[in-house]
Amino acid sequence: MTNAFLLLVEAVGYFGLMATLFALRHRIGIGVFMTALAGLHFLETYLASVFYVAAPLGILSPGSTVLFSGKLVMLLLLYVKEDAATVRQPIYGLLVGNLLTLALVGVLRFHDVEPLPSGALPDMSFIDDMGWLMAWGTALLFVDAILIILLYEALGRVLRTSLYLRILVSVATILTFDQIGFFTVLHIVTGAPLSAFVGGWAGKMAAALVFSTMLVAYLRWFERSALPVPRGISDVFEALTYRERYHELVEQAGRDALTGLMHRGRFNEIGERGVAASLRTGRPLTLLIIDVDHFKSINDRYGHAEGDRVLVSIAARLLGEVGPTDTVFRIGGEEFAVLCSHPHALGRLLGETIRQVIGLGDGGDAPRCTVSVGVATTGPSVRSLEQLFALADKRLYLAKDGGRNRVVGESAADSWPADAGIAV
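-> structure tokens emitted (424 positions)
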């Protein structure tokens, strides 16, 4: 019973220390809590590989039973009181830190080591004892940390009124999954007996009970703010795996840095898909090419910074005039494009609206300017993005040659009628 009592003392001590650091996060910073969490990870893995004690239901390791279980509960606490974007930082930090540790140890082995004056040499055998377990344990922790959060959210829909059961079931389920995964490799590497699995699992179930009780008590007594309502599992998974950052990068990679509009590369990509869909369905696709009149004179007279502000203002007004399914691009210095699903007549009307709105200015101090617009629509003789662009560009230059500040979309016979329903 002495070992069981000591394990309970260790669990209470661990939770008390970490919960105190968490409670002080607004005063000393969340980084202190995260660093303490990571600092104990190395000891946890080492103890799980070599340090075992006898318990009533078998042998177990304090590293796995107390430190690992406690760390998983701390990550859940961090998620519950903060958010997925915060908790993913230590999850990925532990993963990267451990992998870097293993890589660095591999490099250190190539050194020619000099003995100390006492004749002592570094003993790297402990790395051999825990190297594979550290790599495997790190991978398991990464999976466990994400799964426990997702399970906690999933249970929120059926156990919303019972926070204790929601936490206990989440912790016990993931610790069971972890024990199976960790013992499998532990048995292969060290030959650990089945009693280590039984004892370890029983210890983790006791740890789940103790840590869940302390976590709920802490949340009710020390964290006064209300718990968040259950969040969407897909949204949480996106945040935990940084997928929303990936989507942002993909989105930003196709945008013009100044105006935030999509650039010429995305125009080609989206335009080709749009033309293909137009030919397939028989629905028109209209392209407007918009060029700022005498833009060079604006740069020459007011400076390039003012010229940039004009372009940003025009981009904003274009976005304000187009429909929700239309797409606006900046395809050149002072040249913009709009792809829309309007028939030709409505496309010309949109071009006229844009011309008038931009001509009125934005009401600020920016210099006023006008635009010329060329309009073209897919049809029997316009069956590719290249042809569509060439026709709209030709009409743009007709607008410029005709005195600028106008919309040209002649030769409507080349386009489908407003009620187009023909299949191509």
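Residues 412-424 have pLDDT under 50 and may be disordered.
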